[in-house]
Every structure is written in structure tokens, then in C-alpha cells.
């Protein structure tokens, strides 16, 4: 299984939804909170080609995008394949 990283903030409803989908699928992930952490936010933005909103989700080396992108992969039946590597 590919490593999953998700950049979040504490009260972001989209972050919560994305984490719920990953948890429902039994996927372990590393959560990186960017609340008040400018260095972590800058790293996120560099990795996400300038995107500054959360969540920003990475599966392996692939930048998935945000919550809507994650759910779109799931609806298209492509999320499990990406997670499997």
C-alpha cells in the first residue's frame, strides 16, 4: 500500500470528510497539521504546485488534490488502484 499524507487544519470540514473516507477504507495516513505552522504550509504549497487550501492529499508521490478530488477518484473506481501502487 502506498504511503498517504494529508495536510489539514483543525476545523476544516473538507479535511474531516477526506479523513473519514480514508478511515472507512482502512487506509493509514500521516496527517500534517498546518494550523499556525508556516513552514508546513509552505512545504504543502510547494508540493501542491501552489495550492494553498486544505486538505492537500498525496498518495505515494502522486498529488491527488483536495477532498473533492479524492471522492472523484473513489467514484471513478480509481482510488483503490492508486492506493495499491
In short:
With 85 residues, the chain is of the alpha+beta class. Helix content is 44%, strand content 20%. The protein has helices spanning 13-24, 38-47, 67-75, 79-84, and strands at 4-8, 30-33, 56-59, 62-65.
Describe this structure in words.
- This protein is an alpha+beta fold.
- Helices cover 44% and strands 20% of the residues.
- The protein has helices at residues 13-24, 38-47, 67-75, 79-84, and strands spanning 4-8, 30-33, 56-59, 62-65.
- It has a four-stranded mixed β-sheet, sandwiched between helices.
- Helix 1 (13-24) links the parallel strand 1 and strand 2.
- The longest helix is centred in the first third of the chain and has 12 residues, at 13-24.
- It is globular.
Distance between the termini: 6 Å
How many individual helices?
4
> Which blocks of ≥5 consecutive residues have pLDDT under 50?
none
Number of E-type strands: 4
Rg from alpha-carbon coordinates: 12 Å
**How would the global form be characterised?**
globular
Q: Name the beta content range.
A: 15-25%
Determine the fraction of residues in helical runs and give it as a percent range. Answer: 40-55%
Q: Which assembly state applies to the chains in this document?
A: single chain
